[in-house]
Each structure stands twice: as C-alpha cells, then as structure tokens.
Design brief:
single chain, 1 helix
Length: 39
C-alpha cells in the first residue's frame, strides 16, 4: 500500500501538471474573453 501511494502521488503530480497546463489555457481564454467584455 505504501508503494502504491507513493507511485500514485508521483503519477498524480505528472498528470496534474499536463492537465493543469491544458486546463489553464482553456480557462485563460474564457476568462480573457469575459474580462475583455466586462472592461
């Protein structure tokens, strides 16, 4: 279990980084549009 947890954490970090980048781009675009409209 301890090994599974450590591996899960490392994998979760790598996946979180890749997903975070893609999601960050999509969110940045949507936020940029909304902020542009507001301003």
């Amino acid at each position: 279990q301890s090994v599974g947890r450590s591996v899960g954490r490392s994998v979760g970090r790598l996946v979180g980084r890749s997903v975070g980048r893609s999601v960050g781009r999509l969110v940045g675009r949507s936020v940029g549009r909304s902020s542009g409209e507001r301003i």
